Amino acid sequence: MEQKNWHQWSGEEVLAQLGVERNLGLTPSEAEKRREQYGWNELSEGERISPLLLFLNQFKDFMMLVLMGATLISGILGEYLDAITIIAIVVLNSVLGFVQEFRAERSLRALKQLSAPHANVLREGVVRNIPAKELVPGDIIAVESGDRIPADIRWLSAHSLDVEESALTGESHPVAKHAGRLLEAEVPLGDQKNLGFMGTMVTRGSGRGVVIRSGMDTEMGKIADLIQSTDTQETPLQRRLEQLGKILIYLALGLTVLVVLVGILHGQPAGAMFFAGVSLAVAAIPEGLPAIVTIALALGVQRMIKRKAIVRKLPSVETLGCASVICSDKTGTLTQNKMTVTRLWLEGRTLEVTGEGYEPVGHILENGKPVDLKKDQSLRRLLQASALCSNAEIYEGESSLRGKKKTREESAELQWKLKGDPTEGALVVLSAKLGLTSHALSTVYKREQEFPFDSQRKMMSVVVAHQGGHMALVKGAPDMLLDKCSYILWDGKVVPFTGTLRHRVQCENEELARGALRVLGLAYRDVKPNENMENQDIVESHLVFVGLAGMIDPPRKEAKEAISVCRRAGIKTIMITGDHKLTAEAIAAELGILQRGGSSLTGHQLAGMSDEELERQVDLVCVYSRVAPEHKLRIVKALQRKGHVVAMTGDGVNDAPAIKAADIGIAMGITGTDVSKEASSLILSDDNFTSIVAAIEEGRNIYENIRKFIRYLLASNVGEILTMFFAMLAGLPLPLLPIQILWVNLVTDGLPAMALGVDQPEKDLMEHKPRGANENIFARRLGWKILSRGLLIGLCTLAAFWITYSVDPSSAQQLATAQSVAFATLVMAQLIHVFDCRSSRSIFHRNILQNKYLVVAVLSSILLLLGVMYIEALQPIFKTVPLGTREWAITLVAAGIPTFLLGAGSVWSGRRRRKYTGPGPMMTAKSTNIRA
């Protein structure tokens, strides 16, 4: 169906354009013709990839191919245990990748579930119930409270009709619908009040409309198309590991070939050098890297679950750790999604209301002191009107945190629930805070008549019987209600509503509205015995104005601190919402998102910008209001083009495309739709923005732990290769035999490396800016640390070998002893170096006993070393001999030099930087965010 501005057309014009009569509807034959033209009224899932092909695609990764090559080499060498281990790693990573991609394909299927299964449609003058997928443009359908709208429709009639559209538009409360026309050409989705949209829910009233768009042409269909056409972002961790894998493979193979050639040129046997070279290649290729990364991520996931964050895709943990921007939905994420009255105005007084959510606990304060309801008759009347002129109710329901131990605060927040309209619920909770519940009042007041709210008069009225008489209670939009009022309650007395007093109320209404509060007025009047209580105009006339109630969806208290932490960590928080500009800006300012220098854009302004114009402004904008789903996607992509790593949070269907497009998508676990969850990488089980901060910390720590492992692994491998290379250059015998090289690789790359993957974070982890999206894995001097430590490990190992060997170069026994010394030195140097890798500065900056897993791993590795050195049955296998006191002294001194010498240098240079305070290029480590 061609996209038209249906909201600008009258109902009769729409019917004429679609060729259908209001009282007859389509004929079955015409409906069939249109179905052939427009297709079924359902959402397409796009092309499905077969599960088998998804699984096989996992083995196309470059690192996977290298690992399979390492498996073949290990098998040829007879190292079957290594081969089996590598195969297990390959299969584990392939299965994890398959599961992640397979689950991502389910987001469109979840979207389809939001479509209504059946619809009441007018065909040939008769209302029939048919499957909703059979609807076509031109069908006239009827809906009522509780129905899900089955297609995009233009309302032809609306009776007290409210529709919940938050999943689509982000609007925090139901929207009142009407059948009139809208004159503006460009109207945001949330303001198209004469249209209904597929997948949204009718919460009150009834209506009839004509289908204007079906299937993939609907607003929900646009979202489905965005999800299909949006590519899932490759995570920074995946990009870096692929880059690292290729670098390591080429370097390892190149250096290994060089060692073999140099050895042969210096007279070493070709066969021995070949096997030594293959052993070096196997040792140098980091076959344990994917396993350690997987383990580090998996353990991080377990820690995050305890901190209310559920990870659906393992690499996303690390991605959040380098996020530079968090785009957050407002409703339910930064706010509580519970309308709450916070201000009252009556008799010239402003009262503050405490308490949050739907729990009826709180106070009404005047000048900081609780109001005495017994002495304040005007307030009592206002609360009576709030409770009685409402159809909402609050009740104690089962907590959403099933199966989990709840804190007192969590129980209180989640236990009280609302049934009905959120705005009415806010008024009911307000009255209940001072004991005036509808149940308690029903013993005195009995409802006899109701005039429901409608979008034309913007009021609701009830008539109640009490003490032998009747009273009308009215609530509504202040600008409409004031015209119905002839009197005002002032100082406890009913006085004429003079122009001066009317102006004062209007000014107060504007003041509350400027504070982003949604304002309702409340009024009443005594109904005379001879008056017609069934006449709406009579009941809603000559009212006594009581006061104003200002309400808002309050921000989460903990979100403000979380946003502050993000700011200190160099992460910008952006609010993206479907709510109005004033409301969004007020909440953003209160939370600290909108600060001096920041700006705000509406969806209308955004729609008028080109991508280039948006890209120029995107770094300055902190708040986007009244946005449509495609706007969110544009914002995310503009930020990504500016080099940001973007996290997108949300809970609605409208958030799903942007969640999928972001570097990491975060969905809400309690209020989130299945669509947003399926498109996400991370789900917050408590819908709390603060859980994102915990996830950021975990993500940063996981990445740092992976870097620690890489630093340890590569420095060790560089040390092994350089030991052999320098020995060949010097014309010395092989300092390490092939079996010893493989053993070192197995022992030092095993338990100690895994223990680094679960290391505790450093204290200043959240005081640094996020790393850039394109930051090299060797950035922040990691490459220098690897080369310098690796070079020293190689030189010290070779020195220990040469010192021992030079005692008697002609003795085969002395050569075996020297090789055993080199073997022990290399292992001990790496086991000492692993403690240095825990700190970004040096071994002296962290407690070496803090990581108990690492201590146990190192002790285990030392015991294994002593085993192959001193157990006679193992000595012939590993070509080792027992070492004496002299040899152990040489070994330990040589093994300690790389770590302690460079560590002392780091401490000395750090002190120099801290002492330097003058101008120039030298700055403190903290100010430059560079770690020694």
Automatic annotation (TrEMBL):
- InterPro entries recorded for this chain? ATPase_P-typ_cation-transptr_C, ATPase_P-typ_cation-transptr_N, ATPase_P-typ_P_site, ATPase_P-type_domA, Cation_transp_ATPase_P-type, P-type_ATPase_IIA, P_typ_ATPase, P_typ_ATPase_HD_dom
The record's keywords, sorted A to Z, are:
Cell membrane, Magnesium, Membrane, Transmembrane, Transmembrane helix
Residue ranges for the region (Disordered) are 913-932
* Keyword Transmembrane attached: yes
Q: Where in the cell is it found?
A: Cell membrane
Asked if the keyword Membrane belongs to this entry, the reply reads yes
Q: How does it sit in the membrane?
A: Multi-pass membrane protein
SMART domains under this entry? Cation_ATPase_N
Residues covered by the Cation-transporting P-type ATPase N-terminal domain: 5-79
Task: Report the transmembrane regions from the record.
Answer: 62-78, 247-266, 272-299, 709-730, 736-758, 786-805, 811-832, 853-873, 888-908
Looking up NCBIfam families in the UniProt record yields:
ATPase-IIA1_Ca, ATPase_P-type
- Give the protein name, as stated in the record: Calcium-translocating P-type ATPase, SERCA-type
